[in-house]
Amino acid sequence: MAKSISFARGAPSLDIIDVDGLRDAAARAFANDPAGVTAYGTSVGYPPLRDWIAERHQVDPKQVLVTNGSLQADAFLFDVLVEPGDSVIVERPTYDRTLLSLRGRGADVRMVELEPDGIDVAAVERVLAAGARPKLAHIIPNFQNPAGYTLSSAKRERLLELARGHEFTVFEDDPYVALRFEGAPLATMLSMDGEQVVYASSFSKTVCPGIRVGYLIGPAELIARVAKVATNTYISPSMVAQAIVLEFCRSGALERSIETVKAALRERAEALSQALRRELPDARFVEPEGGYFVWIDLPRGTDVGALFVAAAERDVHFVKGADFVLEGAESSLRLAYSGVTPAEIEEGVAGLAEAYHALAPGAPRAALAQRP
Amino acid sequence: MAKSISFARGAPSLDIIDVDGLRDAAARAFANDPAGVTAYGTSVGYPPLRDWIAERHQVDPKQVLVTNGSLQADAFLFDVLVEPGDSVIVERPTYDRTLLSLRGRGADVRMVELEPDGIDVAAVERVLAAGARPKLAHIIPNFQNPAGYTLSSAKRERLLELARGHEFTVFEDDPYVALRFEGAPLATMLSMDGEQVVYASSFSKTVCPGIRVGYLIGPAELIARVAKVATNTYISPSMVAQAIVLEFCRSGALERSIETVKAALRERAEALSQALRRELPDARFVEPEGGYFVWIDLPRGTDVGALFVAAAERDVHFVKGADFVLEGAESSLRLAYSGVTPAEIEEGVAGLAEAYHALAPGAPRAALAQRP
């Protein structure tokens, strides 16, 4: 294979980033607010961006804290809310860094199966009925990482009922919300219940990752506690980066960028689905309606660890399903299509299929298009 | 008093920040390396800036980690090195946020008196002889915050001998090193012993605070451990902010900015010393040779808590000495001259003196210039 093709990293390719828009936003940031941009600022973030986010989500600015990327927001929130031994519900599978962060804090992580319409709320009820008293339920509601699935409206409502009844916080981790390219958007849980929900999102997927701007929204009292941890950790996040994001948003470049990104993701997701159906008919997956990821289940018994090695030998890379769970998922994998063009997707899936067939010589090699 | 005058915050005033230089650096950053600037990057920092810093300090790039400000670097280092109960030597007085950070981690903080030529190394020896086994000694060698004092060459050497003999790390926290406006620069302890020293510095004082770019230099193995903590905390710091700093440095704007800042600080320090000698002859202080701060000792028995209130009523602000120690320093205060013009310094010292004389009516009101 001529060049390395990575389905591993959940990151956009350079061609769908508005670099000129960022350069212009930077020039305006220094021109419009030199004092605010160059001074220390405060740990709640660059105040005009905080206001912009608050308006976007229809909350009080006191409920918003803007951080150096949203993973940092998670870390601060966990610092405040999660003590060793506290139980925390997470989806199975879920984002590997969240798992690591919770386990690093000694949390009692309870994984609950993720279904194509979101976390299995009946299973959450069973966990609660069995006596668990979770502090938090960590939920990635839209185009989940790693599965690509979206939590249905009915399940959002039910989860909030459970949170109120059992007094836990729903941590709605929502970096992909703006990237819906099919179907109708759903209301955020934050908008449905401002008391029970802490919400996180990011500009990594709509502006660019390298700017490192994410945010947290929650009850003002909680945000004040998080802000104190943030002050003691880094005084303040980059005012320069946050002011560039603000100017980018205000100018309309954000909405244009989102359209560019969505169009590319739609095309890439379609190319991936078609290539998988054609080249790897054993793969079972749900076609995504947004976001970056497709979760692939291969036939039980498939050794995805071996597939990982065989694919890498063909210079095709992905993340093993096992990395997103505490145990199991040995026959699953995550493919990210955000950073690869349709041509690269064709080539990458061909390499992946070749690796798969080398390991499973008897498996079907091609098929008519079929939806799982 | 017409307007609030703050000697409280260790931050530069806007007039000594090269805002146009920053704007131009930002434009070049997006033009020269759009892929590197907009992508996630890695937790060790923007690689070309890491290389630049390594060259500046004559170390291997693997020894450098560039962070979101240098306080964040401290936090990561303490996460890796300091366990609850570990003893850590710090200067008395020292930077309040370092104290808070160490105490928050349950460290056994051993304060050792700071003298005008730096930490009392004989007292460090006594602490060691008494059986202390410190993990770290935190030292701000140049123009210390809050005292403004500088560690002499002889004491630097002795401290390193002690560190080698007693197997502790010297954490050389050096954000003010470039701001010497009098006297000859001293070699960093890092350059004297690369094994025993972890070094931190920052661009907050030479570029601007709002960019939030600091760094850590240490043994490559330790830096790799710190990088892992950083990855799990925020994936990576802002590549955009770090690329702007790199372009600012490369273009020569950094050296020009340092000259501007030093000239202003020299003028401000001189204005402050003169005003203090004239208006507040009871104040004992060492005239600074660089940096942002002057430490003032008032006669024993002076209630600086009351002075703080009386000065604030006159809209003059400072930080109480007691904030920089675990106990004591009730008659001392820190004045930062970095963010105030000579005219503001005149007015602020007049207000401070008025507050002091209101509390101590019998104290001398004016004096000929005298050096303490």
Termini separation of chain A comes to: 29 Å
DSSP strand count of chain A: 13
Query: What form of chain A results from the Cα inertia axes?
Result: globular
CATH superfamily of the largest domain in chain A: Type I PLP-dependent aspartate aminotransferase-like (Major domain)
| Biggest sheet architecture of chain A | 8 strands, mixed
Which percent band covers the strand fraction of chain A?
A: 5-15%
**Which structural class matches the secondary elements of chain A?**
alpha/beta
Q: Radius of gyration of chain A over alpha carbons?
A: 21 Å
Entry summary:
Chain A has 372 residues and is of the alpha/beta class. Chain A has helices spanning 19-32, 34-38, 47-57, 70-81, 96-104, 121-129, 153-166, 189-192, 220-234, 239-250, 253-279, 304-313, 342-359, and strands at 5-6, 64-67, 87-92, 108-115, 118-119, 136-139, 169-173, 197-202, 214-217, 293-297, 316-317, 319-320, 332-336. An 8-stranded mixed sheet of chain A has the order 2-9-8-7-6-3-4-5, with helices on both faces. A 3-stranded antiparallel sheet of chain A has the order 10-13-12, covered by helices on one side.
Give a written overview of the molecule.
With 372 residues, chain A is of the alpha/beta class. The first copy, chain A, folds into 2 domains: 5-16 and 255-359, Aspartate Aminotransferase, domain 1; 19-251, Aspartate Aminotransferase, domain 2, CATH 3.40.640.10. The first copy, chain A, is 43% helix and 15% strand. Chain A has 13 helices and 13 strands. Chain A has helices at 19-32, 34-38, 47-57, 70-81, 96-104, 121-129, 153-166, 189-192, 220-234, 239-250, 253-279, 304-313, 342-359; strands spanning 5-6, 64-67, 87-92, 108-115, 118-119, 136-139, 169-173, 197-202, 214-217, 293-297, 316-317, 319-320, 332-336. Chain A has an 8-stranded mixed β-sheet with strand order 2-9-8-7-6-3-4-5, sandwiched between helices. In chain A, helix 5 links the parallel strand 3 and strand 4 (108-115). In chain A, helix 12 crosses helix 13. Chain A is globular, with a radius of gyration of 21 Å. Mean pLDDT of chain A is 96; it is low at 368-372. The interface between A and B is large, with 47 and 47 residues.
